Amino acid sequence: MAVKRVLQYGEKSLREPSKEVHKVSRKIHELVQDLLDTMYAKNGVGMAAPQIGVNYRVFVVDVSKNDEPLNPLVFINPKIIKKSGAVIAQEGCISFPQAYTDVKRYANVTVKALDINGRAFVMEAKDGELLSRAIQHENDHLDGILFIDHCVNRFETDEVLAKHNLPPINPEMLADDSELDKELNK
Ligand code: ZN
Predict the structure, then answer these.
(1) pLDDT digits (tens, 9 = 90+) for 48-62
(2) Is 138 a catalytic residue?
(3) Of 31, 109, 119, 160, whose CA is between 20 and 30 Å from 24?
(4) CA of 141 to the centre of ligand 1 (A)
(5) Which element (helix H / strand E) includes 58?
(6) What is the DSSP letter of 56?
(7) What is the CATH number of the domain that holds 78?
(8) Which residue in the list 20, 30, 138, 172 is annotated as catalytic?
(9) What is the pLDDT, as a whole number, of residue 128?
């Protein structure tokens, strides 16, 4: 369909919770195509609907490597139904150009969602790999949660944000990562 403008950190829709999709209609198909077109245009591994200003519970992910065929995955009304283990790794976001920081995530997640045909599926992403990280990152976008909310060190992250002329962390938005911390300390 079209490459859309990607909202940048500070814009309102990124902090707003998204609505459930009631019917996987033609409108939703168009939204998915816009997300894929925009994600590929920006060389991202994932893109959530709020990032193009549409607050519906839809995201796309493609973790294929450059020399592999494209492997677009579509998640509609996703729910993470199982999570375990924890890992720390550098993460970025297309809505935060060039800003990378260490972020805590679960190593393994199981996600339930609808596919592009409206059929339910369950997917497991394990071992702290890119797919697991991408699913958690994109799923968070649907609740107005951003990767910096899971940062390992708030002050280091603020330095990175300042370097890229982005607003600092709002301490009230930091996620409660006590469960994740427990997993990290195991
Ligand atoms: Zn993002």
Answers:
(1) 999 999 999 999 999
(2) yes
(3) 109
(4) 7
(5) strand 58-61
(6) B
(7) 3.90.45.10
(8) 138
(9) 81
